[in-house]
Amino acid sequence: MTAIFDSNFDKDLDSLEPEQLEEPAAAAIELVVEAGGDRLDRYLAAQLPNLSRARLQKLIEQGQVSVNGAVCRSKKGVAQAGDRLTVSIPPAAPLDLQAEAIPLDILYEDEHLIILNKPVGLVVHPAPGHASGTLVNALLAHCPDLQGIGGVQRPGIVHRLDKDTSGALAIAKTDQAHQHLQAQFKTKTARRTYLAIVYGAPRDESGKIDAPIGRHPIDRKKMAIVPEERGGRRAVTHWQVQERLGNYTLMQFDLETGRTHQIRVHSAHIGHPVVGDPVYSGGKSVGVNLPGQALHAWKLRLQHPISEKEIEAIAPLPNSFSTLLRVLRQRFV
Hints:
Largest sheet: 9 strands, mixed
Low-confidence stretches: 1-25
Strand content: 25-35%
CATH class of the domain at 194-297 and 320-332: Alpha Beta
Number of strands: 18
CATH architecture of the domain at 194-297 and 320-332: 2-Layer Sandwich
Radius of gyration: 21 Å
């Protein structure tokens, strides 16, 4: 298969690279069929794991798929060897953003940027299913001039955290700051350190996980370890044991890359999933009611976009995380 991607077409996840945070644009994907004989929708679903089969069927019905230059509206059409397929992904419709008076836990703020401690359960920006009540809605109430900085749908956003991951998050308040901060995350000069409580006791005190991550081939809502030749993107996580608590461990994770669900996927990959993770931990219980996974973006280090002085913001642990630590210490220490 030969594929040409003219624009990013996977915008529905919580934690994408900075260059993927631009406003959605139309994407054109071209494929050359090497081994044919499969139904068109099934073939496309196998080759494009970032798009669900249902979504591909809808695109076919809408005339967004062509075969050798001719529009094909039948999902039952057969992809033949040598066929040149083109899939057009229309941009998402813009959302009407409204300012909402949602409290913010601010760690640092000046006229150029704001760093805050995002709570568990707060979605970063509006998306289908989350049209309001997001961090962006709260930011627009706190910073009325933020509208349009870096794009109308994600004003000021330069990186993200999963809905149920808490911790330090930086937001640009000017276009200049937005460009500068995005460059830092893209070049990895901005450093992110996480704390997590995981199941099990790692044999070593520290290590490095270098395993590519991509969309799960079956469950489209999950990510998984996927070879790069099948669409996975290189992902590197460094980890270090902070405290051993019986069959649980407090770990520090430092991101070298920033893939979707990276820590959650990597920790599960080495046999130590994050406690409370509803997707990757296998539904294990720890006996403490957690509103989300025990994963917290503890420290964020970056250069100020104007003065270039180093800023280090430390986000206090949420109450649920601290409670879990206290319970485990009482139980095992």
